[in-house]
Design a protein that fits this description.
about 130 residues, mainly beta, about 50% strand
């Protein structure tokens, strides 16, 4: 059974940091682009960041650029999201997702694409 399992969420004060992890199992994700998305309560899910299979290419939503860093460890089949300088508006359920890239995929459109696998999500709450 293929799974993505997020961890690392919790309650943090504004200005603080959290690192999320997304561990894959049931297959290797080294050829997949891995993305992070988030969904604030009562709002639609939004794209946060994406990383290529090799880890050499990353792309971020403007709202998190300069504060969040996505990375991956293919040996551990795990992708990370380091979140710094957190703001109350970063409060959301954070999901990781995997997509095998298709011809003509564009990173600036990543939030619009269907994904092959999704995790169950982890809550991040930033208090003011």
């Amino acid at each position: 059974q293929v799974q993505l399992v997020e961890s690392g969420g919790g309650l943090v004060q504004a200005g603080g940091s959290v690192r999320l992890s997304c561990a894959g199992s049931g297959r290797t994700f080294s050829t997949y682009y891995m993305g992070w998305f988030r969904q604030p309560l009562g709002k639609e899910r939004e794209f946060v960041a994406v990383i290529s299979g090799s880890g050499s290419i990353t792309y971020y939503a403007d709202s998190v650029k300069g504060r969040f860093t996505i990375s991956r460890d293919s040996a551990k089949n795990t992708v990370y999201l380091q979140m710094n300088s957190l703001k109350p508006e970063d409060t959301a359920v954070y999901y990781c997702a995997a997509r095998r890239s298709r011809f003509n995929d564009r990173l600036d459109q990543w939030g619009r694409y269907d994904h092959d696998y999704w995790g169950q999500g982890t809550q991040v709450t930033v208090s003011s």
